[in-house]
Amino acid sequence: MKIAINTGGGDAPGLNAVIRSAVLAALERGWEVIGIRRGYEGLFRPGGIVSLDARSVRGITHMGGTILGTTNRGNPFRHAVEGPAGEVRMVDRSDRVIERIRELGIDCLIAVGGDGSLRIASELAEKGLRVIGVPKTIDNDLAATEVTFGFHTAVQTATEAIGKLHSTAEAHQRIMVVELMGRHAGWIALYAGFASTADVILIPEVPYDLARVVEKIEARWRQGFEFAIVVVAEGAVPSGGEASYLDGGPAGKKRRLGGVGTRIARRLEELTGHETRSLVLGHLQRGGAPIAFDRILAQRFGVAAVEMVAQGSGGCMVALEATRVSEVPLADAVRHTKMVPVDHDLIRRARAMGISFGDRRGGGR
């Protein structure tokens, strides 16, 4: 048996742990393992195919990033080709990807990625390629799995950063607005905001009214707590409005979310008269060593993927259901974005403690 592994999309803490565990589990079965660099691009680049053995994956479990490299612009169904006049057109080279994989004698591909990468894997599976998906994203927005590795490390990073802001916010009597990643799902902001005792948490699933946020902040000042921490998901949406983007979305590219934290901070200072600062954690949430939970989950996923290959599975994804690692169809995993339910337990508990989500009057301490 000869298998290949690639990593696609944004990086996440735990990718190397998946690679190492899958390689070691495959080697135990006497299989050959190769790595494809930078998603599918390595199939067509010199040095893009590497042999993976015990020595090549030694000591990488604790490392952030990925030894195989990654890209979020490597969709073989929409491959950018520049014409003679400099014009760019999108071509479908998925058939060539499948042909190349078969030329290399690969029996199964283990594709590690988020919703975009696994959607590509699912489409390749529909065209006949044998693929096992491993869910990876700090955003935790993949359906069919309870949690993705990388998420809890991102939450830990954000929680520690927000915690450090409490003392400076209180010392200067400031409002601190912290913008976190998550795209159109508010999982990171909800968990990190709750863990760091934020006063306001704004997530895409609950459209906010800035007047309600101001009410919460002014209530704190009246109670003698002359500072406030506002955690904002990058995809947060004002009631009746739309998310903030950094660009206009050029042809063939996704619009990039961003700027909501700065915008909210500016308006809060105008409306309250209190000095306000904003902070965007950005890619800090992707970097660094995975925490123990993510190292363990990533290794469980890696071994489970190899076991699925041995069982003859294909077109499926490794998933966590409660405490059990299971197999689910790839198509189910990418069918929709997993949003935070508006009646989620953390939202209900946070409201009960007086944390504002910007949609209701009131909010205690």
Summarize the helices and strands and which ones pair or pack.
Elements: E1 2-7, H1 15-28, E2 32-36, E3 49-51, E4 79-82, E5 88-91, H2 94-103, E6 108-113, H3 115-126, E7 131-135, H4 151-172, E8 175-180, H5 187-195, E9 200-202, H6 210-222, E10 228-233, H7 260-272, E11 276-280, H8 292-310, E12 316-321, E13 324-329, H9 330-333, H10 345-352
Parallel strand pairs: 1-2, 1-6, 6-7, 7-12, 8-10, 8-11, 9-10
Antiparallel strand pairs: 2-3, 4-5, 12-13
Helix pairs in contact: 1-8, 4-5, 6-7
Average pLDDT metric: 93
- For the record, the CATH architecture of the largest domain stands as 3-Layer(aba) Sandwich
The strand line-up of the biggest sheet is: 3-2-1-6-7-12-13
Output the radius of gyration: 22 Å
Number of helices: 10
Structure overview:
With 365 residues, this protein is an alpha/beta fold. The protein folds into two domains: 2-149 and 290-333, Rossmann fold; 153-286 and 341-352, Rossmann fold. It is 34% helix and 18% strand. The protein is built from ten helices and 13 strands. A seven-stranded mixed beta sheet has the order 3-2-1-6-7-12-13, sandwiched between helices. Helix 1 (15-28) packs parallel to helix 8 (292-310), helix 4 crosses helix 5 (187-195) and helix 6 crosses helix 7. The protein starts with a strand and ends in a 13-residue tail after the last helix.
